[in-house]
């Protein structure tokens, strides 16, 4: 197959949802369609069970599963589909944000009864900022839920999306009869039999036909006719380019558990979802069909075996072919590296591959060369735009609890930060180290891994910080900025890239500071330049 054909047949995407909306179940059904797995239950959920936060076995189990489900690839009708796993648990939100830099599109799963939930809001906002094309799947239609129109309103308002329903439910919960597909203009009847892989679809060329009455009953048929008329009156018609620009989001309804409405979603997805997209580097826009290989690291995973400190770096291929044993330039280190056993990922296994194409993810064994955001090329010194850090929610001092092991501790902290487990801030005043995380669970993970992988012990000490704000002065030389540096010295720190950060101790003090120093901007993310 030609190089261009290989690119054009790839679809790399992520499924985002609030925990429990049905991401794992949907993933599994998609894999079933692709023939990548034979039975339900084969995809492991990487969820952390409620109440298991202090259970280290649970953390280890979670790490194992998260390697196994990092990338799930399968083929469907000649299309190579790569699903990138995005943890739904809020403590791992950073991980998900980073993964979103490597997807070309996303599917958003929403629970019909719960509607738009907190995690979904945050993740969709990130996708919206980047104009990532999104398809919405409203799940669990076999259960009583919100009215379809109310839900569509909620999705528009809370998520700021511009929706176009491409399917519409006929009844819901106990009365759920099936789905009318506006995209294919047919009716799919619900039997509630989850063992069936392919549902029977009935072509309906005319909604006014008697046939519809026979299929779903006169009452439901009439309701559907009215609703579809409303849908066609209220919502714009679907336009592929508008979707691809991130300005319009098609919506599907279904029940992942019952494998209902999933094929419709998948068929539409392979039809409209973007092939690998060009990516902006600091120097220039890079197109997938360029001959020379480029890619970037979006995830680093520590090896499960504590005796081997090697790690797996996940690279998204942006352009060209990635080949085994060919020397590539690690741009940040200005060093050539060769990889003898790059891994490609499939539904249930990983394998060494000789060649990978744009859109694909390869896992490279790494002994500490890589940081998240690093660029690899065939020689050109380009840098893909950094992967942003967001202000953590929790902050604690980290102290060395074993003076004989301080070297191990600092090495451990360094490597765990490279992996993106948490963020490190070094106070300007006294050099003390502060760890910032999205969730409290990360502190336990860090402490546990420092001890088991690096032989170092740490303790934490509380620190009252409301938000980390990246400092962006209008002019580094003006008096106002100099005064700010002097007065707020106690609250200033450097992040891992040596960027200056203001650790505001309350919303109020942040507000006062902003008022007092109007020429300085304070950002909640490191990506503002
Ligand atoms: P995730 O946290 O988003 O990965 O959610 P899961 O896929 O693990 O699903 C959470 C729960 O919802 C599980 O108990 C599923 O069996 C259930 N579930 C998923 N899809 C459906 C559905 O279509 N209908 C019903 N009734 N339950 C579902």
Automatic annotation (TrEMBL):
Keywords: Cytoplasm, GTP-binding, Nucleotide-binding, Protein biosynthesis. Residues 8-279 form the Tr-type G domain. The keyword Magnesium does not apply. It holds the Pfam family EF-G_D2. It is found in: Cytoplasm. GTP binds at residues 17-24, 85-89, 139-142. HAMAP family: Rel_fac_3. Increases the formation of ribosomal termination complexes and stimulates activities of RF-1 and RF-2. It binds guanine nucleotides and has strong preference for UGA stop codons. It may interact directly with the ribosome. The stimulation of RF-1 and RF-2 is significantly reduced by GTP and GDP, but not by GMP. Belongs to the TRAFAC class translation factor GTPase superfamily. Classic translation factor GTPase family. PrfC subfamily. This is Peptide chain release factor 3. It comes from Corallibacter vietnamensis. The gene is prfC.
